[in-house]
């Protein structure tokens, strides 16, 4: 009998603690939620900056902006710019029925990185510029990332034509990235 009473008391104590924890979660104000989100964004930003400095990152894009401002939302698993050491991969793939040269509706190009230059302005905004040269690509790639976030914009400027393209997405360390690479040119 004592065991049953003890068990019921422990169960009620745990249940009361669980209910109290839920009440605490519900009572977070907008300001507190915003502050928590800012701290989380700041941690992601530090992680992204470290990955850029180590030349081991992927910018997973969920939006593509074309030369004349036309925009398309795309899958971030198949649209990315990735750098690992002195090698880079630039891939764009659109949700179209045609398979394209890479087999997933777009183009994938591998290249070597040169002139890798990372700068931070007075406000803390990061900018990275590099050349990517390979069989299917010769372009200047510029990445800009505002202070306190891992959201970034990459502008791809080909050297042989004026078909520039802008991708918007997030910068992740290469080991946390989950991209699918198509067939390279």
Please describe what this structure looks like.
Helix content is 26%, strand content 39%. It is α+β, with helices and mostly antiparallel strands and 185 residues long. The protein has an eight-stranded antiparallel beta barrel with strand order 1-3-4-5-6-7-8-9. Keywords: Signal. It holds the Pfam family DUF4251.
What's this entry about, in short?
This protein is of the alpha+beta class. It has one domain (31-176): Lipocalin (Beta Barrel), CATH 2.40.128.410. It has helices at 2-26, 30-53, and strands at residues 56-65, 71-73, 80-84, 87-93, 106-120, 126-133, 138-145, 151-158, 165-173.
Chain-wise SSE layout:
Blueprint: H1 2-26, H2 30-53, E1 56-65, E2 71-73, E3 80-84, E4 87-93, E5 106-120, E6 126-133, E7 138-145, E8 151-158, E9 165-173
Antiparallel strand pairs: 1-2, 1-3, 1-9, 3-4, 4-5, 5-6, 6-7, 7-8, 8-9
Distance between the termini: 76 Å
Class by alpha and beta content: alpha+beta
CATH domain class? Mainly Beta
In which order are the strands of the major sheet placed?
1-3-4-5-6-7-8-9
> Would you give the CATH topology?
Lipocalin
Number of strands: 9
Helix content: 25-40%
Order of helices and strands: HHEEEEEEEEE
Shape: globular
Number of helices: 2
Radius of gyration (CA) equals 23 Å
* Share in β-strands: 35-45%
Low-confidence stretches: none
Oligomer: single chain
CATH architectural type: Beta Barrel
């Amino acid at each position: 009998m004592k065991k049953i009473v003890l068990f019921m008391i422990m169960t009620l104590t745990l249940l009361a603690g669980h209910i109290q924890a839920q009440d605490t979660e519900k009572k977070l104000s907008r300001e507190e939620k915003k502050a928590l989100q800012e701290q989380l964004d700041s941690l992601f930003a530090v992680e992204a900056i470290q990955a850029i400095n180590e030349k081991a990152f992927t910018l997973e894009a969920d939006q593509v902006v074309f030369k004349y401002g036309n925009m398309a939302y795309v899958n971030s698993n198949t649209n990315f710019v990735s750098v690992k050491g002195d090698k880079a991969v630039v891939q764009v793939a659109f949700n179209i029925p045609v398979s394209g040269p890479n087999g997933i509706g777009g183009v994938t190009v591998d290249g070597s990185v040169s002139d890798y230059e990372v700068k931070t302005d007075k406000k803390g905004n990061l900018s990275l510029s590099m050349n990517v040269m390979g069989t299917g690509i010769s372009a200047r790639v510029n990445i800009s990332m505002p202070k306190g976030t891992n959201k970034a914009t990459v502008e791809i400027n080909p050297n042989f034509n004026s078909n520039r393209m802008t991708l918007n997405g997030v910068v992740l360390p290469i080991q946390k990235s989950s991209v699918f690479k198509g067939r390279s040119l």
